[in-house]
Amino acid sequence: MMLTARGFAGFVKRHHFRGGRATHGSMFHRAPGSIGSSAYPSRVLKGMRMAGQLGNESATVLNLRVLEILPEDNAILISGAVPGADGTVVVVCHSAKERVRQAEPANG
């Protein structure tokens, strides 16, 4: 599980928008531009990428195996991809899901 919070972020930082030109007095450097059409549907559609909370999301990855625990190095060796950047907090816990058993063939 990854826990990283970056606070309120603008369009450019959160969604990698390019931004506007910086010359000729444009005053359009880090603004989003148009976010909806005027005539139809006359509203902003759901899912429009906007400024807001960046990070502070948790990601759970199942079916990773702990290969080895190194107490002298304060480290755990895990096989598989662990989400998050370097230095983020990772919580390792036992899986809460039960394994799905194969259906046994019915006899007679």
Brief description of this entry?
The protein is mainly beta.
Content-based structural category: mainly beta
Mean pLDDT: 84
**Uncertain segments:** none
Please list the strands of the largest sheet in the order they lie side by side: 1-6
Task: Characterize the biggest β-sheet.
Answer: 2 strands, antiparallel
Helix-strand sequence? EEHEEEE
Shape: flat
Provide the helix percentage. under 10%
Percent strand equals 15-25%
Tally of contiguous helical segments:
1
Rg estimate, integer Å: 23 Å
Number of strands: 6
- Distance between the first and last residues' Cα: 47 Å
Describe the protein.
Helices cover 5% and strands 22% of the residues. The protein is mainly β. The termini are far apart.
Q: Could you give the topology of this structure?
A:
Layout: E1 2-3, E2 5-9, H1 11-15, E3 52-55, E4 65-70, E5 75-79, E6 89-90
Antiparallel strand pairs: 1-6, 2-3, 4-5
Name its key features.
single chain, 108 residues, two-stranded antiparallel ribbon, 22% strand, flat
